[in-house]
Protein 1
Amino acid sequence: MDNASARPPNSAPAFMVYCPRCATPLVTRPVSDKLRRVCPACGYIHFTDPKVGVGVLVVHEGRVLLVRRAVRPEIGKWSIPAGFLDQGEDPQVTAVREAQEETGLQVTIDHLLDVYYTPPSGSGGASVFILYRATLVGGQLRPGDDADEAGFFRLDNLPELAFASTRDAIRRLGGNA
Ligand SMILES: [Zn+2]
């Protein structure tokens, strides 16, 4: 890991003002090894959960499926189809849904490729990113949702890529596309 100098995430965010259970003003107190926002009345402890992203690496006829990002972070750069995991949703279901929303294409999950960790930077990106290999099974290419372009690219003719996870996934494809 080369992230030792990264600023640690704020475990006691000031925007948590009131207890969501009883509306008493929260206070900051150490809980185990970290400072947390805690309710002095009912004992509620606010835990800051990581943002989890999921994405699919789809290769069809030697070309990789990419979308151009219409939103921050990394707006205007290209990434694999991806989105945030919703509460209570299977990450494989999220990955298939995001691919459909961003590209109009239907894919099926083949297997897990990797799980990436990026320290929170305040840019709004995912801190945990689950990457699946997936196969194109249908649909018509049509960008949507957070993407304003979508297409298949040869590995020797890639556009400017967003996110270390996308660059790493494509680098690993190497000559095995
Ligand atoms: Zn409370």
Protein 2
Amino acid sequence: MVGPKAIINLDRLIHNYKLVKQEVGNKKIMAFVKANAYGHGAVPVAKALESVGADWFGVFTPEEAIELRKGGVTGNIMVFCRFHPEFLEKANKWDLTLNISSEDDLNDLITFHGDMNSSPRFHVKIDTGMTRLGLPIGSVSSFFNLLKKNSQLNYEGIYSHFATADEGDLDYAKFQLEQFKGVLDTADKMGLSFQHVHLSNSGSVLNLPESYFTMVRVGLLLYGAFPSDEVPRDLPIEPVMEFTAPVVNLRKVKAGTLVSYGGVWSAPNDTVIGVVQVGFADGFPRSWYEEGCISLKGERYKIAGRVCMDQLMVDFFNANVKRGDEVLLFGKNKIDSIPVEEIAECIGSTAYVLLTAIGGRTERIFSGLE
Ligand SMILES: Cc1ncc(COP(=O)(O)O)c(C=O)c1O
């Protein structure tokens, strides 16, 4: 097929997983594979991780979880979106772990247990400062009281989420950590204990080991990118995705020729303009054109003019290029790399945004595992 390709190097994924495993010692890892494994392909990624011992997976919706089950993933799968009563039967049927973040959610579980005499597994979400989902600290005791009265329910975990763990200033993360410890203390005093306790994400795996508890939840590091430029970057992770596209057209133009929409780019000299078949509809970051480049045979060439929906143009100047050559858009091939973090920093975005955007007509090719 002619068009963009995301080559997913599963051997690099496993390399990254093993590095994170070394970093966190005997703690469990919940591999975050939501949003199609951050654009990498959820089922092949989860199965590759399962083959090296990963036994917890984080997704956002029940549909994402069921896709994993249908694809043959047998490990624990936790669904992180706000609980809805319609998840209960799905959770029982597909053995999913639910996210319970309010007394209303707990009451729905109690009613379901009354009707069906069964309870899906769930983890209790505490809001320690993200102000998204979760029990506010002030309502924890009343929630725990209700939980204690309903010990038939299958509560197996408790967790919270950092808002700033990937920042250089960790004061707020440390505040959240203390809040969370306070909640664990309250639970302990009330005689409640949880098998799985988790708070850490990629940022805090790198810079806050005291937040590991029994399990860490890791996404971005597994895919070989760092969450920000403020975290220590000494873990030798490898980019899993190699995003490429073919040169489909070449043409000589005179100096001053305008290229692409708006005519905002003009050839600085007589040159060769190539058309590469990838555009913003495939997830290529449109705003990367101003400073942006691609790599051909280990050399970088400037993107010429605005990125279009399906194509972009490149100033190949005196390159040895022919129709059909594949260019590297980001990631790493055998001779060059364009880190997705470099693009993100340049255009004021993040690796999360750029990776999860990859889609459209992009073909995913899985390599690196038998
Ligand atoms: C609740 C929760 N935990 C963990 C993660 C994983 O974060 P990261 O990719 O930074 O490791 C996410 C990602 O968005 C999340 O929402």
